[in-house]
Input
Amino acid sequence: MSSCTDRIEAARQELVAALDASTVDLMAHRPAESTLVGLRDDMLARLADVRGRGAFYASIGTGRGRGPLVELIDGSVKWDMITGIGVHGFGHGDPELTAIAIEAASQDTVMQGNLQCNSEPIRFAETLRAAARRGGADMAHCYPACSGAMANENALKVCMQARNGAPRVLAFCDNFIGRTVTLSHIGDSPGHRQGVPKSIEVDYLPYWDPADPSRSSSDALNAMNAALASYPGQHACLVIELVQGEGGFTPGPREFFEPLLVAARGASVPIWFDEIQTFGRTDQMFRFEGLDLGSFADIITVGKMTQGCAAMWRAEFNPKPGLLSGTFLGSTAAMACGARIIERLAAGDAYGPTGRHAQLFQQFETRSAKLVESAPHCFPIIEGRRGPLAPWGGTGGMMRLTPFGGQKDRIVSLVHRLFDAGVIAFFCGHDPYHLRFLPPVGVLQPSQLDAVMDIVDDQVIAEGQEG
Ligand SMILES: Cc1ncc(COP(=O)(O)O)c(C=O)c1O
Output
């Protein structure tokens, strides 16, 4: 038995070392190889055929990557500045996570379930709960799920049951929360709920607007008080993205949220922080931690960078048996790697005012400011609802740049240009739209961010010349 264990461990170490050595050629971006373009196009056609919708861009990987660089099937190597929409926080081919995934793959089952599981989901949930508690949130329980949307569905049901079936939700304009039937109606994007029957009542509050802080605060509080007065006792929860993700990378400050949270508490409305996009990548592990708002949290949901997703709640919210279950908790590898990612984030130099996330964001700001100064014609002033919008924004590993007045077609064109030039990015927001980065904050080096921003400079200017 012990000799088998030794052999497995030696083989695992050997495999990780060999895999790591096999990607040393991935040190910079490079263009597609003409001999592989046909293979790529064939794969894209197959994707469109089988899924019923084509790809946004040709980002189909070979399975090889190194840090922030990923190899695609056309032989190109690109800087991955979107990381599966915020999932691969430690980039590609991380040796430690590879070792953990191999260990997970050598176990008896691929998936972990609610009825039967091994120890990984327990360790994942304990690690997450401990992190939330360290951040100041009194979370009693943590319940894994296979997607952010499923974690959010669980959170919503927990809130509703705790409020005896209250049918309404307080949410913010421009929020995004997931794509189930109900969540599509809480999220504030008409395209996401097209043709989907309404299944929940939502009272929307205006979000933080840096162009007029005091007005946006009073507008939000007035809207909330009006909704609470109109529908007393009928709100299951107030759900908040403390930095809006899909909505446009707007980081609201503590002063904006606190009065709303106090009002929610006063009306016994459960407070739910949706940290699915923010988790791990801002100035603290949780955004509520950075804003010192943990004591208000009744429910928290996480996903993306955690690999496994989960909902956490205070003791008094623990639901009755029957409310939550499902076949899967997550894959063995996702649970094991997720736990280690949380530990690594906690132990490393990511956080605080001079942590690596803050430094990366500062570098992004410096480079963005230089670009705006050198190409002002690409950055016309954008008049928001309450005043002009800054041409760049975000926080930590949530970065946005807003050239061309935030026009959708120009931003999408820029994203495609960047892709062809070696940077995988995406967009967020709606009117205005923004160029959006969710970089691999755990591994991206300052020199690499500079290399990316050199390409961004060139492509913004090129797009500006064409428009
Ligand atoms: C804030 C927020 N909530 C929920 C979700 C839904 O997560 P998933 O796409 O894993 O279902 C997302 C995904 O982008 C998100 O950003």
